[in-house]
Amino acid sequence: MIPALMPTYARADLAFVRGEGARLWAEDGRRFLDFGSGIATSSLGHAHPHLVRAIADQAAKVMHVSNLYRIPQAERLAARHVAASFADSVFFCNSGAEANEGMIKAMRRTMAETGRPERYRIITFEGAFHGRTLATLAATGNPKYLDGFGPKVDGFDQVAFGNMNAVRDAITPATAGVIIEPVQGEGGVRPAELRFLRELRAMCDEYGLLLGLDEVQIGMGRSGKLWAHQWAGIEPDVMSAAKGIGGGFPLGAILAKEHVAKHLKPGTHGTTYGGNPLACAAGNAVLDVILADGFLDRVDRVARHLWRGLLALKERNADLIEDVRGAGLLLGIRLREGVLNTDLQAAAVAEGLLTVAAGQNVLRLAPPLIITEAEADEAVMLLERALARMREAAVPKAAAQ
Ligand SMILES: *Cc1c(COP(=O)(O)O)cnc(C)c1O
């Protein structure tokens, strides 16, 4: 019989009852170090007192009113995001897919309202992940996710990640712009070269196209800067955000320059929940922490420490690890052929460490941004034990052959 909870996930048999910082406690009393953050989302870790208080206080006042009224919490959050970024205006929604869906609409609408309605197509990249709605699936382009859902939404042209010639070849008179993750998360923790991001920006300027960034996973401090594109010294025309911006409370956002934002006016786009007082109270509390003096510098420092630890881990375990990659606190361990990322993930759980699998046989580490260097060291130690556990498990199998 089908479970009451629709079985769209192959879930681990673990249920957590409590968290604190980078720690989670399961029903059976086991304690874990959380280097998954609920897929790069619990940016402040668990039960962060400032975030907890902001949500509790706001919930006791008013949670939801709809966008038929002014929402001071949303006005304040938008103004703070504008002050801290390239953007002139922000639209709030509830998830990453919704933010991307809105970003795609904003790009198409901008073209339509500036005399170029034939320009509706968007260039995306192999290995991308933009969400599970019909349009964001088409932008994602992964046949595995598209199969059985009818005709793919038209308007997306996918090219090889990092290949500038392929991008240029894909431009047609129907092209509106490009959408790229500065660091591909689900696709295997693959950073775009900073030079490639700069070339995309220059190419969009040259052809009058829009540059859209999907910073749902790498954004909001995870790269060590507030937004990952800052490392390349470029600005997009429009950007999607979600995951970390609510610290675990569902919140998404489209951040845009005025020349894009002004085309989303009353009647063109909307949401019932999006940017409600409760979600924006959470968003403001997360910003309080991330924008505090020295916080992002500390993220950068801990990230470099973890990176060095992982490189040393790779040296000691070169029989199993092929490569370490990523940026900031979104790091990936690519395993050698025949060594499965999901097996290492399970072995890590047995050692008390939570991680997330990603594409290209990569084990993804996306700890809360508040981790200490000691917690980074502990994760490396637990990974080393997990690798040893895998080696032991492989021996009897080989012997039996
Ligand atoms: C997770 C993710 C999404 C989708 O976000 P949801 O909140 O699951 O809809 C989109 N883009 C990127 C880069 C992501 O990592």
UniProtKB/TrEMBL annotation:
It is an enzyme of class 2 (transferase). It catalyses: N(2)-acetyl-L-ornithine + 2-oxoglutarate = N-acetyl-L-glutamate 5-semialdehyde + L-glutamate. GO terms for cellular component: cytoplasm. Keywords: Amino-acid biosynthesis, Aminotransferase, Arginine biosynthesis, Cytoplasm, Pyridoxal phosphate, Transferase. This is Acetylornithine aminotransferase. Binds 1 pyridoxal phosphate per subunit. It comes from Elioraea tepida. Its cofactor is pyridoxal 5'-phosphate.
